[in-house]
Amino acid sequence: TQVTSLWLAHNEISVIANGTLAVLVQLKNLDISYNLIVDFPWEDLASLTALQLLKMNNNRMTNLPRDAFQNLKDLRSLRINNNNFATIVEGTFDALSSLSHLQIYNNPFNCTCSLLWLKTWVENTLISVPEQNFISCASPPSLNNTPLRKIPSMQIGRA
Fold first, then answer.
1. Calpha distance 52→98 (Å, rounded)
2. Pairing relation of β-strands 5-7 and 29-31?
3. Is the pLDDT score of 156 beyond 90?
4. Per-residue model confidence as pLDDT tens digits over 53-72
5. How far apart are CA 129 and CA 146, in angstroms?
6. Bridge partners, 103 (sequence order)
7. List of E strands, 2-128
8. pTM of the complete model beyond 0.85
């Protein structure tokens, strides 16, 4: 199909079936923000190699596969803030060579040793990562509401 932009924000969508988006190979802009999506068909993104803007913020997503964005070399802006991601696996953003803007704030991060990479990456990346004080821990309890960037590296995972 020739569809280059798909704006589905604020539609109370809770399910996107596997394969639904995969056929939209010309897609440059996808906005599924402000919906009720828990399980997203991440494998569909593999076909969307022209994607430049991906807005998935303000949903209920919990699982973000490490290879979710592997084929999105042209992606410039990624918004996954305000979801329920407790962790982001190291390497998740590695393939995003064109990325200039990333929103990951307001997710209930579990600040263990496995998230230490994210703290370091956000501190050192040239990519715009706004609202860094809201990239914070939900657990362990001793770090609840503590911004990831304010935790000494050696304290992560020891709380």
1. 9
2. parallel
3. no
4. 999 999 999 999 999 999 99
5. 17
6. 79
7. 5-7, 29-31, 53-55, 77-79, 101-103, 109-110
8. yes
Helix ranges (DSSP H) in 10-53: none
3-class state of residue 80 by DSSP: coil
> Which residues on adjacent β-strands are paired with residue 55?
31, 79
Q: What is the mean pLDDT of residues 75-90?
A: 98
The answer to whether residues 78 and 54 touch, using CB atoms and an 8 Å cutoff, is: yes
Cα separation, 137 vs 107, in Å, equals 8
Say whether the peptide bond before residue 140 is cis (omega within 30 degrees of 0). yes
Q: Residues 103, 80: contact at Cβ < 8 Å? A: yes
Residue 158 has pLDDT above 70, yes or no: no
Beta strands 101-103 and 29-31 are unpaired
The per-residue pLDDT for 159 is 45
CB-based contact 41:21 (threshold 8 Å): yes
